[in-house]
Amino acid sequence: MSVAVVYGSTTGYTEDLALKISKELDDLVEVVREVQYTSADKMLDYETLIIGVPTWHHGQLQSDWADRYEELEDYDFSGVQVAFFGSGDAERYPEHFQDAIGILWRKFESLGAELIGKWPTEGYAFEDSQALLDDGKFFVGLAFSKFDQPDVVDERIKRWTEQLRDEID
Ligand SMILES: Cc1cc2nc3c(=O)[nH]c(=O)nc-3n(C[C@H](O)[C@H](O)[C@H](O)COP(=O)(O)O)c2cc1C
C-alpha cells in the first residue's frame, strides 16, 4: 500500500491541515506534496491519494488544482482510492460551501477512482454544496469550516484518519 497526500493551498490553511493529517497517518503516508509540483502522472505512483483542496471565489477550485484539472483527463485512476479534505467557510459562503471537494471527486470518479473517507453533514450549517452525497447526508470528504468551527479541527482529524485506516486497502 502506498499513500500520498496531495494538496493545494493559497493562503496556507489547507497546508496546515495536510500536515496535521499526515502526522496522524505518518506510518502510512509516504509523501506530502503540493499539487502545483505533482503531475497527474506522478499521482498514479500511489494506490491511495488523500487530496486537499479549499474552495475559492464562490464555488471554484483553488488555483493550483484548477491548473491541474484538465490534465487529469488523460489518465486512468481505476484501482486508485481517493479521499478528500476541504477547507471552506460556511458562514460567508453558505451557498458554495466546500464545492471544490465535490468538483474534484466528480472528476476522479469519471476517471475510475474509488471514494473513501466520506463524512457526515450533521453538525454543519450551510445552504448548498456541490460536495453532497446520498441525499445530503454526507460530504464526499472531511469538511473544515475555517472561521465558525475552529475548535473541532483536531477532533475531526482524529476521527477521520481512524476511518481512513479502516478504509484504505
Ligand atoms: C475570496 C474568497 C472566496 C472564497 N470562496 C469560498 C467558497 O465559495 N466556498 C467556501 O466554502 N469557502 C470559500 N472561501 C473560504 C476559503 O476556502 C478558506 O479561507 C480556506 O481556508 C482557504 O484555504 P487556503 O488557505 O488553503 O488557501 C473563500 C475565501 C476567500 C478569501
Count of DSSP strands:
10
Main beta sheet, described? 7 strands, mixed
User: Which architecture name does CATH use?
Assistant: 3-Layer(aba) Sandwich
At CATH level 3, the topology is: Rossmann fold
CATH H level, superfamily name: Flavodoxin domain
Instruction: Please give the share of residues in helix.
Output: 25-40%
Q: How do the helices and strands follow one another from N- to C-terminus?
A: EHEHEEHEHEEEEEH
What is the highest CATH level, the class? Alpha Beta
Bound compounds, each kind once, are: flavin mononucleotide
Instruction: Please tell me the total number of domains.
Output: 1
Q: Which outline best applies?
A: globular
Low-confidence stretches: none
The SS-based structural class is alpha/beta
Rg, please? 14 Å
Mean pLDDT level: 97
Please summarize what this structure is:
The chain has helices spanning 13-24, 40-43, 63-72, 99-110, 153-167; strands at residues 3-7, 29-34, 48-56, 60-61, 81-88, 114-115, 119-120, 132-133, 138-139, 142-145. With 169 residues, the chain is α/β, with parallel strands linked by helices.
